[in-house]
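Inverse folding, one chain.
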């Protein structure tokens, strides 16, 4: 899979940031990178373990990833980032349903582990999922950034030192309004107030992170993630502590970045080593 060339490419405290002309090019580039890293994991370790995000920002990436050649999906184990508490999988907004329809039921994954938002004991469900995550290292976390800069469902102020890999979180109003704005719910009152989510430390534990964040509605969150001081008030700023994180933006989501942030622009030379 050829990777489209970015319009701009620069680094922010070690983060590899690429800006593309549109969401289609961004999604194709992120998919090419993720596919290359999966191939490397499969070649080196025989298996691969990957976490997937959901939401409207992920459509183009997931569409492109399904077409990636040369991947033995039967040796890939999949997880996801979060799920609403109390929402059945049959609900149109269920993240389990989203990923089944767009990915898990369309590729022959070796194993798929889903967070059960309807579990009778949410704390026990968190422990069950954390144990699955802990069996071996996660090779890749494919994530996004929320309008309020959340990572998974860790809304501000996020706990950068959360002791548990998976926990129950309260969703703030900005997060819940985003779900309405993306068309997942008819009204704010319909959006659950709590969710199961991987914690910030669990996300950062992945060997590699691919962060896909298009659209102008994400511009303020992208700015605080890349330019503001790392702070729980901007959960996505935690990415700046990761040694192998790659951020994919379009012109709209990068629009608020200061010229000084982009001064380290460098010519694209193809995808980072896969």
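Residues assigned per position:
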């Amino acid at each position: 899979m050829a990777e489209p060339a970015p319009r701009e490419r620069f680094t922010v405290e070690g983060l590899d940031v690429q800006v593309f002309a549109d969401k289609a090019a961004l999604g194709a580039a992120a998919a090419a990178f993720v596919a290359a890293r999966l191939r490397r994991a499969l070649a080196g370790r025989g298996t691969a373990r990957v976490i997937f995000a959901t939401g409207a920002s992920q459509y183009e990436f997931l569409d492109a990833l399904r077409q990636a050649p040369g991947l033995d999906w039967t040796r890939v184990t999949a997880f996801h980032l979060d799920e609403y508490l109390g929402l059945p999988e049959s609900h149109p907004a269920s993240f389990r349903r989203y990923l089944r329809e767009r990915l898990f039921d369309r590729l022959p994954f070796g194993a798929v582990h889903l967070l059960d938002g309807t579990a009778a004991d949410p704390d026990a469900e968190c422990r069950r999922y954390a144990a699955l995550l802990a069996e071996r290292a996660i090779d890749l976390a494919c994530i996004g950034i929320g309008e309020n800069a959340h990572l998974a469902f860790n809304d501000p102020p996020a706990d950068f030192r959360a002791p548990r890999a998976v926990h129950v979180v309260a969703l703030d109003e900005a997060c819940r309004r985003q779900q309405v704005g993306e068309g997942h719910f008819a009204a704010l009152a319909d959006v659950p107030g709590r969710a199961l989510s991987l914690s910030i430390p669990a996300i950062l534990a992945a060997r590699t992170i691919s962060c896909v964040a298009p659209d102008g509605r994400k511009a303020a969150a992208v700015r605080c993630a890349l330019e503001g001081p790392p702070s729980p008030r901007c959960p996505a700023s935690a990415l700046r502590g990761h040694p192998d994180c790659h951020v994919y933006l379009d012109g709209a989501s990068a629009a608020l970045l200061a010229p000084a942030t982009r001064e380290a622009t460098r010519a694209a030379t193809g995808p980072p080593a896969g």
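The first helix runs from residue 23 to 45. The two ends are 12 Å apart (CA to CA).
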